[in-house]
Amino acid sequence: MSDMEQVSSSSGYMTEERRMLQQSARDFTLREILPVANELDPVQGDIPMALRQKMGDMGYFGILLPEEYGGLGLGVFEYCMLSEEIARGWMSCASIIVRAPSMMGMVGWPMEKRIELTKRAARGDYLRAAALSEPNAGSDLYGGVQCRAVLDGDEWVITGNKYWCTFADGADCISVLCRVDESFGGRRGTRSFIVEKPRGELPENCQGSPIPKIGYFGWKTWELAFDGCRIPKVNIEGAVPGMEQAPRSESGTQSRTRRASPLSGLSVARVHTAARAIGLARGGLEDAIEYAQQRQQFGQPISDFQETRFKIARMAAEIEAARQLMYSVATELDHGRGSDKEASMVKWFASEMAERVTSHALQIFGGAGYTKLYPIERYWRDARLTKIFEGTSEIQLRIISDQLLGRPTNRRRQS
Question: Where do the H-state alpha helices sit in 192-337?
């Protein structure tokens, strides 16, 4: 165990059970995920089904899902702790586990269907893509949504364009954010719909093309055009119009996360993004340490040079600071405390840190780091994305400053 790992394991947050889960995920990542990532990411290959099956067997798709539905029933802390380990190998694998949804919120569906699909999701056998953003709706998501859903008898008809829909082809369904009421602006006029489809295909009456990305390989990210895509009236998340008295979405025991945390899914998603960023940074650091100890210049390993040693020391300190903040915020979420402000703080801090640390790691590799011969360039590319998705760094600073200072005068007047 490295010195950095000893510091992490000695944290007051770490129980014996958590240490065992962490070590198991670390071993699995180095044995199963990292070799696949090193082979397929340089050629932009997709995450193999065989690897997804192994991740399902480990329970990673069901970390947050209740045990009664086949999940592990764990909290945000374990979710983030394990995601850090997986992201150290390939961030796309730490992201695909997010695609395993609880379908219990589909209150218009029969209970049997909801339970069956949630159990399949816990095994990684039923995954969902999310079509939220649009060409003109990014940071101003709810204010900019133009994709519309119109009720026509017993069906919703979806028409409009979506952008940045990762895994649209490989998922079993797509959650599509649509505007349903033009009389309301922002979030109030929107709803999310489930579009079921065959795995490996786009939905009927939906065309699309992959977006040429510079990273985040392992799966494709799509631009979609819905043109009269019809779905059943009950395929709406939450209460169905005309069926508001539908049965409660869940019964029986709930996981700790669902029972304790009152915050929006965005807060959990942002702490999870921090975990992925920390995993990337750690991959860069650990690879840089190994390379620095092997690379000889001027008759000695470059790890003997003070600049290299101090650079590595700063990188390790920044990673540990981000990890401890993540542990703190995740613990608060699991206990029903904390706020969007803290979630934004850790997302901002960890993502900014990850880009900085992976850049320093690449510098230690020198020219070799600017090739696809080493995975450091993957960590660097993917770390840059963490500053953009799940809310840009600028959006996180806006959330934090609004809670510290109140909203600016011009936005108070608009509300």
Answer: 256-260, 265-294, 306-334
User: What is the average per-residue pLDDT within 291-309?
Assistant: 97
Would you say the C-alpha torsion 37, 40, 42, 45 has a positive or negative sign?
negative
Domain boundaries of the chain, sorted by first residue:
3-108+115-122, 126-248, 257-414
What are the DSSP E strand ranges found in 203-273? 206-210, 221-232
Q: CATH number for 3-108+115-122: choose from 3.30.70.360, 1.10.540.10, 3.40.50.300, 3.30.230.10.
A: 1.10.540.10
Q: What whole-number distance in Å separates Cα of residue 122 and Cα of residue 188?
A: 31
Residue 1 has pLDDT above 60, yes or no: no
CB 172, CB 126: distance < 8 Å: yes
Task: Name the class of domain 257-414.
Answer: mainly alpha
Closest among 130, 139, 30 to 90, alpha carbons compared: 30
Measured distance between the N- and C-terminal CA atoms of the chain, rounded to whole angstroms: 53
3-state secondary structure of 235: coil
CATH topology for 126-248? Butyryl-CoA Dehydrogenase, subunit A; domain 2 (2.40.110)
- Checking if the pLDDT of 40 tops 90, the result is yes
DSSP secondary structure, 115-170, as one string: HHHHHHHHTTSS-EEEE--BTTBSSSHHHH---EEEEETTEEEEEEEEEEEETTTT
pTM here is: 0.91
pLDDT in tens, 327-383: 999 999 999 987 899 999 999 999 999 999 999 999 999 999 999 999 999 999 999
The Cβ of residue 3 has, within 10 Å, a number of other Cβ atoms equal to 9
d(CA 312, CA 132): 39
Q: Is the pLDDT of residue 385 over 90?
A: yes
Per-residue model confidence (pLDDT) at position 249:
42
Residues 6 or more apart in contact with residue 315 via CB below 8 angstroms: 281, 284, 285, 288, 357, 360, 361
Q: Give 239's pLDDT tier (boundaries 50, 70, 90).
A: confident
Tell me the catalytic residues.
Answer: 390
Say which amino acid occupies 107.
Answer: V
Tokens 């510091």 locate to: 7
Q: Which residues pair with 193 in a beta bridge?
A: 176, 236
The token pair at 327 is 């542990």
pLDDT for the residue 411: 67
CA atoms within 13 A on the CB side of 202: 20
